[in-house]
Amino acid sequence: MKLIRWAYDRRGVVRGYFDQFPNTTFYLKRIRNYYFLCAVDWSKSDPEITEEHREEINILINRELGREQAYLQRKTRSLS
Description:
- This protein is an alpha+beta fold.
- The protein has helices at about 50-65, 70, 75-80; strands at about 5-10, 15-20, 20-30, 35-40.
- Helices cover about 30% and strands about 40% of the residues.
């Protein structure tokens, strides 16, 4: 999966667009030092979004914004 483009939205929210989901908009909120997928404007013409897709989307956005290390070291990561 590739990140096509991203943009800042309102109040710390980032919108992301990905090649596997060309008609879907992903919304990520900033939590401390990283961004986390919080909402999806899903299009029926796109494939279903799996847990693996969600994880990859979080990693790609945080990598693009220079926050990948903070995302990978988040507290919830150590609980699983």
